[in-house]
Amino acid sequence: MLLDTNIFSSFEDYSDISGKLNELSRRLNPKSILLKHPKSIEYLNTLDEDTKRILLSKLAFCDLLNDYPSPINDLEFNTNVGYLKGTNNDLENNLLYAVYTNSVTYLITENRMIHQKSTKLGLKDRVLYLNEALDFFKEFYSIQKRQILPQIKQRPITKVDVDDQIFDSLREEYPEFNNWYNEKAHLGRECWCYIKESGKLGAVLIFNGEDFDVIKTDPLLPEKRRFKICTFKVDQVGYKLGELLLKKAFDYCIDNSITETYLTHFAKSEFDYLVNLITEYGFIDIGTNENGENVFFKDLNPTPNQLMFCDYKDIFKKYYPLFYDGNRVKKLVVPIRPQYHEKLFTDYVKRTSITLNEYFGDFIIEGNTIKKAYISHSPIKNLKKGDILLFYRSEDHKELTSLGVLEEFKTNLTSPEEIINMVGKRTVYSSREIEEIVKKPASVMIFTMHLHLKSPIPLTVLKENNILKGPPQTITEITHGAYEKIRDLGGINDNLTIH
Hints:
The chain is an alpha/beta fold. It folds into three domains: 2-140, 3-Layer(aba) Sandwich (Rossmann fold), CATH 3.40.50; 151-301, Aminopeptidase, CATH 3.40.630.30; 323-498, Hypothetical protein (Archaeosine Trna-guanine Transglycosylase, Chain: A, domain 4). It is 32% helix and 25% strand. The strands form six sheets. An eight-stranded mixed beta sheet has the order 13-14-12-11-8-7-6-17, covered by helices on one side. β13 and β14 form a beta hairpin. It is globular and about 75 Å long. The two termini are 44 Å apart. The model is unreliable at 144-149 and 351-365 (pLDDT under 50).
């Protein structure tokens, strides 16, 4: 695990950071090693002597990363992160390259630019903030499940403090923000939000799905009912809160037959956190409005002409939560034990450990995000991006429950490191579970979660309709005709599927 020096300058009280690092060390596997990068030492040489001496003393407990690779001649890497001259950029890229080349498993940094670059490299699940790392490894190396999980709540914005510090940057950009907020509060505007233990907001999405409006770009988009993301702020980064809020927005659109959504935002740079997040899930920059803001637009009802220019295997990413389910992709039934089903699908309404708060409309964050990872011992091979995964909960409910789309698949993995390098912090499996799993060659599926069946399909019905002959013991491919029966029996919303 590689530590960035900026961890030590991100907190006013060094005893606070020291305590967190000591706790992290205690939480880690005894075989884990905390490392510092030689480029970090070079960077310290550019600072004044007192600062250099203090930071070197704080890094003394870290071993030095030896034989580290250099990104200087890696064209693909530099194209993705953007090569810029300067000590800071050189350090950022070298730290990331250590993760990119699997020289280290994780990087811990408070540098938002590094986190934004990691998204472009597909490494965001292995680049952690310190608090995030502490939270993750409490679970990863624990034999007990966490009892209290953070939750997303839907509430009127009248119940949210307009003076919360999460809105400070908006007040700087929009001096009239408080007036706008109070006006919308009186109109009954609502939001989804995550409230930290301190009572402050960690994330908030204020929305409007009722008005018909015009998008004043060039060319102008005519009046139409659209879902407008009015305010979207994530303060507590690293916990997939932004991803979860987007999922809530998309679900609202599908449930209410809204075919377009958009937001406006002053894009700050190439590595803007919000821009990277929303473009990953299909928003495109269509120009600026009369206020000079970038307008990011997402179409949830692409035309045949639009689809002609999109590879069918990429539809689930570009137009998420829509997905292609025609003849060109495989359909696979994936058996999953109850304990892993509950970890992966925490928003599934028939979870046996559902809490009272969840029942009344709150949503647990872990397992309720868009991208997920599942590990199995299935011997199946030749799965490809875009294939449809139909999850079958075995042992207790014995029913087909959920649908996802495969994004990445690797098989014959035989070491915990191989699995961790693939799934990063997105795993719902503990260290012990992964070590036990890889005693036999394992496969990992990274997939996007699209829906739970409106009507879960029991095994008896699956057998009656000749979809399955019996309870699946391993990942089982079914015919397209069998899938069409599942689509009808499970009540899959036609607004989600592209044939």
